[in-house]
Amino acid sequence: MLPRNVVLPYSSRLEPETREWMSQESRLLECPFGTVLSGADGEMKGFMTVLEGELRVQHRSPAGRELVLYRLGPGQSCVTFLPLLKEEAEAVVEKHLRAVLLPLSPVRVLQARSPAFRALVQDIFTERLSQVMLLAAELAYVSSEARLAHCLLRRASGGSVVRTTHQALAVELGTAREVVSRLLKDFERKGWVALGRGSIVLEQPTRLAALVANSTAGE
Predict the structure, then answer these.
(1) pTM for the full predicted model
(2) How far lies 138's CA from each of 69, 98, 122, 206, in Å?
(3) Which helix (H) or strand (E) holds 70?
(4) How many Cβ atoms are within 10 Å of 100's Cβ, its own excluded?
(5) Over the stretch 91-116, which tens digit does the pLDDT of each residue have?
(6) How distant is the alpha carbon of residue 208 from its chain centre?
(7) What would the pLDDT profile of 120-148 be if each residue is shown by its tens digit?
(8) Each residue of 20-52: b (16+ CB within 10 Å) or e?
């Protein structure tokens, strides 16, 4: 049961009895940085809403390769991460997580009983599926160099230093670490970045932005 002070962002869309049912059947989750929530874990299946923190939802291939599908931040929800992926999906806590989880059994009950909840789940599923489809288009049509440049600019958030590893960037881009290292070395030779241990300094962010813009214009 949820504490009375927990207000879900979509509560106004739901019928009063549905809100009460969700409050009775949901539970709070607290997970520290680095926690891995697996889609194969029956205890984690259901309707999750992030209150605080951030989750990175990713797909792991049978060979162990990882691809980031999307992220969930405060106020965002997902149904069992992404049902289409089943056990291959997992979520990694990137910032200390406080979330609400409505287990799968009551989710199914509400989908049968509540038109408002059914519409909410459909909207959220459509949004997450759209994110995955946009990712697929990016993988197909945007060069690895441009995707890496875009990733660096986004992670820098207007600053000049990105604190990450080549492996983390490889997971983000859905490619091999060796590919990321080669591309970063090429950026460094051009004077666009400076590589350090666990950090990347953006020396010429305008060059990176131009690479992204040119790639997008060429689609």
Answers:
(1) 0.76
(2) 12, 31, 24, 21
(3) strand 66-72
(4) 20
(5) 899 999 999 999 989 999 999 999 99
(6) 23
(7) 999 999 998 899 898 888 888 889 999 99
(8) ebbbebbeebebeeeeebbbeeeebbbbbbbbe
